[in-house]
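dumping this here so i dont lose it again. seq + smiles for adenosine-5'-diphosphate
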Amino acid sequence: MLNLKSPGQYSAGGAKPPRLPGDKTHSHAAYIQIRDRIQQRLLAELNPSVTRSDTAEVRRVTERLFNDTLAELGLPLSRLERNDIFDAVMADILGLGPLEVLLNDDSITEVLVNGPDHVFIERSGKLEECDVKFRDNDDVMRIVERIVAPLGRRVDESSPMVDARLPDGSRVNVIIPPLSLVGPSISIRKFPKHALTPDELIKKGAFTPGIGEFMRACVKARLNIVVSGGTGTGKTTVLNALSSYIPEGERILTIEDAAELRLQQRHVVRLEARPANVEGKGHISIRQLVINALRMRPDRIVVGEVRGGEALDMLQAMNTGHDGSLTTVHSNNAGYVASCGNDGVDGRHGSTAKGDS
Ligand SMILES: Nc1ncnc2c1ncn2[C@@H]1O[C@H](COP(=O)(O)OP(=O)(O)O)[C@@H](O)[C@H]1O
Ligand SMILES: [Mg+2]
């Protein structure tokens, strides 16, 4: 992704980008003018066989048009300012426009667009409004299309709600008018670049070194482990940390709704469930993947979160030789999870461990 530092309107939170000559309004107007001209010309001049994915070609053509446009407009810009505007134009053409700067900022964990005028971010668990703005609903929709098109999805009146993912794994939900009354709404949960290790969790006080050792022994001894907790309590984080205890040399299958786990071992097959397409077809559930995984000679099955029918398959698998499995379940009470497991399945091991965080 482009490391975008763009003019006025695109500054995220605290850090202010360099200013163009004149005030913010002037710089932004100049930027819009340049961007629109370049986009129009790009459409006219770009060889139709060149796709957006041919970044180098698009960049080359854009650069030429950019220089021509600047010369025509006779704008006195320093080299730094030119670079900033060029990056912003490229982000608009190839990337996610005003959202790029927010997505590239590692201190931001969520990006929430409530229509064109209200963009919020989450930093260190706190929500704050930032001064990123879109021109209008169409400007937001351009970015929405850029997000969903590569995934073969579409957002329009007939399918106004879509879950998608950015190439870096960040989760995106889009809901548009008429369902959203504030304009197109985008919610991005950024994929953290770094997953917390057991040692880091211990340092943070999530569990003691003793519990860490105990959990390591449990994983090594192939006990089945269910991590339970409410939303956002750190289940996935703990599951990921626990999975680091799986010895190298075992064949691990991970199954998730949205791939979040990052296992460090070499022998890992990652499976991801698939939502239905626009025609409502092609849905592949976690449960189907669990059943399929059992035929893939797994040493370990790690399921991101069990919610539905797959719970039964998981428990049955755990009790019929596929022990050492790890998963999470949404619950406020680990005891309740354990009793459900015992009621639902004739458990031989009954070793539902609590890893609540
Ligand atoms: N012990 C911890 N200390 C600080 N942050 C944590 C801790 N555990 C998890 N987090 C952070 O909390 C957020 C939610 O964690 P996650 O594991 O995705 O929750 P869940 O799977 O229960 O919904 C993530 O951003 C994660 O990095
Ligand atoms: Mg989770």
